[in-house]
């Protein structure tokens, strides 16, 4: 285990505690956004290597252990060979951390547990705390980016252009856990996923799978390896509106790590935090040893993006000025190149670096979007939320 229970980061903490720890950490940080209730969203940078890793924690307010782990990491990275991992300091890695993506939900969860004397119970799930102050599940907003938190996260993603995203979560064990143990209902204590779904760049898939397996071997809790939102087939078509299924389309390998934790308060917090720290440090160690694999992965992805959209000349988007302004803002947030041709027209040229995500946003009749529609799990094209028409121009 990591440290002693006396460490405050092995207990539930408030948003104010998070803020104090970040500001006193000594690392470079920025405030990259504010929530509806005015709380800051922080982005911390550590190192200056060529392999960029982005950690996102606390996107659901009821999942505290990843937040604590991200904050404890700030201290560990000042040590040589943190937790005995085989890197002395960061040389090949540039680490970017969003330690708390949903401050309002996180604080609400803390307040609700405090009112219950931090008693763990299966009923202490509190959907209102899982979501942000607008009542939205942030992890369903990575196509339309309607919420201030998801806009901030995606803006960081665009500026960092990471090779790897670590998506840290906790899950809820059904069936009365606690007081029952998670093994009695779901049969596992932690979960790891790679990126196995359809139309994802093969180099991204391979790196994601490799890191997931490395993490699995390093964890103190035996994990269950499963495919995120996967269906019966090996490479399913999955909704691309959640962080873990979205960012691989924009050039990053991704691994999702979950621990049993929703409803637990301080119960097993040391173990839960430890799992996330092992996952993070394993990924860093792998990147420190294999920087060339990530550089090659990014090159392969960039080539495939151009190849995947060669059949398109571009997209013509028409609508009134107000609606086109909204479209322009959303496309900019996704890093999509465009030209405002006239007051009532936007042209998105193809091919371009963010080619696949352009197609997923703009071509309702692309086979991937058609498959999502068959399953009633999408698509997430912009003409579903804005009053615009889209003309697809193919060569």
Automatic annotation (TrEMBL):
Cofactors: Zn(2+)
Keyword Transcription: no
Annotated Peptidase M14 domain residues: 1-287
Keyword Heme: no
GO function terms (MF aspect): carboxypeptidase activity
Keywords: Carboxypeptidase, Hydrolase, Metalloprotease, Protease, Zinc
InterPro entries in the cross-refs: Peptidase_M14
One Pfam family in the UniProt entry: Peptidase_M14
Family: Belongs to the peptidase M14 family.
Protein name as catalogued: M14 family zinc carboxypeptidase
Organism (species): Pyrococcus kukulkanii
